[in-house]
Amino acid sequence: MRASEAELRGLMIGGLDGNAADHAALLRLLVPLLRGFYRRRSGGAEDDIEDLVQETLIAVHTRRATYDRDRAFTAWLFAIARYKMIDHFRRSRRHQPIEGLEDILVAEGFEDASSARMDVDDLLGALPAKQARLIRATRIDGLSVAEAAEADGLGESDVKVSVHRGLKTLMARIQGGRR
Amino acid sequence: MNTDDLIASLSRDVPPVRRGAVGRRILAGMAVGGVLSIALVVAWMGVRPDLGKAMHGFPFWMKWTYTLSLSIGALVMAAQLARPDTGRLRGLWLIAIPVLLLASVGAMELIRTPPGEWLKMWLSYSWMQCPWRVLALAMPIFVGLLWSFRRLAPTRLRAAGATAGLAAGAFAATVYCLHCPEVSAIFVLTWYSLGILLATGIGALLGPRLMRW
User: Fold this and answer.
1) Burial category of B120 from C-beta neighbours within 10 Å (exposed 0-12, middle 13-18, buried 19 and up)
2) Among B102, B131, B150, B126, which residue's Cα sits nearest to residue B202?
3) Which residue of A has its CA nearest to B80?
4) Beta-carbon separation of B11 and A53 below 8 A
5) What is the ipTM of this complex?
6) A19 half-sphere exposure, CB direction, 13 A CA radius
7) Number of H helices, E strands in chain B
8) How far is C-alpha B44 from the chain's CA centre?
9) Do B153 and A19 touch (CB under 8 A)?
């Protein structure tokens, strides 16, 4: 059951008058309210939501002097909640590059990634097995030439030559296909 | 930390809050900064020797009325911006009144003065120092207001920073009147206001960084 505005406001004013029990009751009633508020808006991880709820409770407590007894309590509460949410997103995004974010999101799209892999599979399938295997090992799986040579029981120069020939064939095919 | 534990620990410390706590907090920060600013004028520039005599004249009160009414207007804005749920700012246009009044005094001054002396009246002898001194004197007041805002809840940080800067700059100009012997309205309108505007701009720049909570 949701607490009403009148009830919350009564408890808030009780807290402002120094009644600790009212204040505790208010904060407890705010928890489900704030969880709902953040869940609807962020769709983020449950941890984030709980962090935001706690931050907002702390702000409600430390900044309770800014509540004007003559105004609506929930308007004040949600103004704080909204501010905390914006601040939270601003902070968590600071560690990501903002420029080109669109490109990153598109490039990281699952569909694009899987269709790119299918393209690569198609192309490599047209090469001799040895060349395809070595290109996959050195260029896609990220092995060094020495590691790939050892894994295949080949000489390093053999690996280099195979990769080089395979890539040259692929290049010719892609350019030919474009024309 | 568990949310229930958090609530329990927060509820351990519930001092009563009186009505008008926001206003008192802002005035307290302003007062502490203002005292520092006055001390700075006394120690650094010196109070003008003819202050007692000047306080019987029109120019001194013109300057005080202009700067004090601006700082009061800015404080009224700051008190509104200190609350998270303030919608539209009320009374913003009131800040224009002192500016318009001083401008009309300045216009009369220009009419009464021969045009050949306008430049001398406008620049006088301290126009180069005046804005910078006002800005310097605004700093302690601005810091005092930042302290006030630490326990308040502004959600429009740039506007809150700008009003804090305006209040600090305008009150710094009031304090600067203790030193500055200039008498011309157009001097005050230009150079005092420039210092006040600089403080406002710095406040707007720093607000989003320093007032976050």
Assistant:
1) exposed
2) B131
3) A66
4) no
5) 0.86
6) 11
7) 10, 0
8) 20
9) no
Q: A69, B151: Cβ pair inside 8 Å?
A: no
Could you state, in order of their start, the residue ranges of all structural domains in chain B?
A: 21-210
The C-alpha atoms of residue B149 and residue B29 are separated, in whole angstroms, by: 9
Distance CA A91, CA A20 (A): 33
Q: What is the pLDDT of residues B160-196, one digit of tens each?
A: 999 999 999 999 999 999 999 888 999 999 999 999 9
- Reply yes or no on whether the pLDDT at B199 is more than 80: yes
Q: Nearest to residue B71, comparing CAs of B129, B127, B19, B134?
A: B134
Q: Is the Cβ of A27 closer than 8 Å to some Cβ of chain B?
A: yes
DSSP three-state, residue A85: helix
CB contact under 8 A, B3 and A31: yes
Q: Is the separation of the CB atoms in A75 and B84 below 8 Å?
A: no
pLDDT tier, B87 (very low <50, low <70, confident <90, very high otherwise): confident
For residues A112 and A99, give the distance between their C-alpha atoms in angstroms, rounded to a whole number: 21
Contact with chain B for residue A82, Cβ under 8 A: yes
Which chain A residues are closer than 8 Å to B84 by Cβ?
A: 63, 66, 76, 79-80, 83
CA angle A34, A40, A45 (to 5 degrees): 85
pTM attached to this predicted model: 0.75
| Contacts with B17 from chain A: Cβ below 8 Å | 16, 64-65
> Which of A66, A84, A90 would best serve as a mutation to test chain B binding (most B beta carbons within 10 A)?
A66
Q: Spell out the residues 6+ positions from residue B102 whose beta carbon is closer than 8 angstroms to its own.
A: B62, B66, B185, B188, B189
Q: Phi, psi at residue A136, to the nearest 5°?
A: -60, -45
How many interchain CB pairs under 8 A, A with B? 80
Average pLDDT over residues A107-134: 69
